[in-house]
Amino acid sequence: MSRHVAVLMGGWSAEREVSLVSGAAVSKALAEGGYRVTSMDIQRDMGALMTRLYPRPDVIFNALHGRYGEDGCVQGLLNILDIPYTHSGMLASALAMDKPMAKRLFAAAGIPMAEHVIVSSDDVIAGDVMERPYVIKPLNEGSSVGVHIVGEKTSELPFADSGWPFGERVMVERFIPGRELTVAVRGGEPLTVTEITTERGFYDYDAKYEEGGSVHLIPAPLESDVHEETMRLAALAHETLGCRGVSRADFRFDGDSLFLLEINTQPGMTSTSLVPEQAAHVGMSFTELVGWMVENAECDQ
Prior knowledge:
Layout: E1 4-10, H1 16-32, E2 36-42, H2 46-52, E3 59-62, H3 73-81, H4 90-97, H5 99-108, E4 116-120, H6 121-126, E5 134-137, E6 148-150, E7 169-174, E8 179-186, E9 189-197, H7 205-209, E10 215-217, H8 224-241, E11 246-253, E12 258-264, H9 274-281, H10 286-295
Parallel strand pairs: 1-2, 1-3
Antiparallel strand pairs: 4-7, 5-6, 5-7, 8-9, 8-11, 9-10, 11-12
Helix pairs in contact: 1-10
């Protein structure tokens, strides 16, 4: 009998809709690959989730994005239930989602990062806490949710009237001009480098998920030494946090230096997503990619 895979999708984070699209694509590909698939739209009811997980599936494919789905919360529950799951474990997931803590670990590993400060939302609204241009980020959201660039000509912050909706603290990071690069890492091995271009100014939520929101150049047109260094740093970031399965590291290249922006432990699996593109570039179909992820699923030891 084929292995039974439960695909967790949806959830209640700001990335719910993207997760539903990822989950649907994964479910379809796994079924085509011969797995017995149950798709589960997860709500904020852990008792209901545990009920739906009996009889126990052989593997969980975690297609949840954002808080609670990729920050260690669901991973901890699945560890308790002892059901193998895809992507990183509880600690690596929590560290990657906590941007300030991840930056400390990356800096200790010698990975270059943009200068940043952590301040209150009131401080940001009151005036510049860093020389412009700079970037405002939530401390624990993914998919560029809540990210804003404050440039020389920015007159009023987008949340000045409505208030900052992502907690009391804000990350303010020096804006790195230049090229946007990303690397998928599978099982500790980097696949290739993609350059992302967009007319939106940076790779924001809409650029990531709207059709035509960005152009992906694969492989990125880089000098060979820059290409190799980008892949080395992506693999190092994956290893530093203790990631497993598939991750994706995002960089800025200013023409001289590379800067790691963040690592995503559960990158998107939509029609416009970067990891499936990179897998296809190295000869791995989407069905083969998700099948590999299922066969390499595990719980924390």
